[in-house]
Design goal:
Layout: H1 2-8, H2 24-35, H3 43-49, H4 54-65, H5 69-87, H6 92-98, H7 104-115, H8 119-139
Length: about 140
């Protein structure tokens, strides 16, 4: 549920959403998504895992989480990629594969759409900010 909490920062309407009120099948689904985010996740498999049809599952998911399943999964992958860009020295391709994003062009496009810059630019800017902050702290 850690990722669900992280995504709340992206969706302000979820700040006030209480996970305790969520349908138990969707709670199970969120845990399953978080656990298997680096792998291929199909909506059919998620629906099957909670014994409902795909249309019913998608309705339940959107009713409880307020975004579509595919958008949730994609946003979760992008959030994980952002954290890895900030905290690791992995190459962008390694990060993309680690978070389960298979298509490089879509990953870069989606990342830029969400964060306003490409993964490469994001990392460079983040590291520059980090270096500037360390330099300022060392001067004091």
């Amino acid at each position: 549920m850690r990722i669900f909490a992280d995504l709340c920062f992206d969706y302000s309407f979820l700040y006030f959403f209480h996970i305790e009120q969520m349908d138990y099948r969707i709670k199970e689904t969120l845990a399953k998504i978080e656990k298997g985010i680096s792998q291929h996740i199909s909506i059919q498999d998620l629906a099957d895992s909670v014994n409902v049809s795909v249309p019913h599952f998608q309705h339940l998911f959107k009713k409880n989480v307020h975004i579509s399943t595919s958008k949730y999964i994609n946003d979760m992958r992008l959030q994980n990629a952002r954290k890895l860009l900030e905290t690791s020295h992995l190459r962008i391709k390694e990060i993309r594969l680690k978070v389960g994003a298979t298509n490089e062009a879509h990953f870069i496009r989606d990342f830029k759409q969400k964060f306003g810059q490409t993964p490469t630019d994001y990392r460079r800017i983040f590291r520059n900010k980090d270096n500037e902050q360390e330099t300022t702290e060392n001067r004091q």
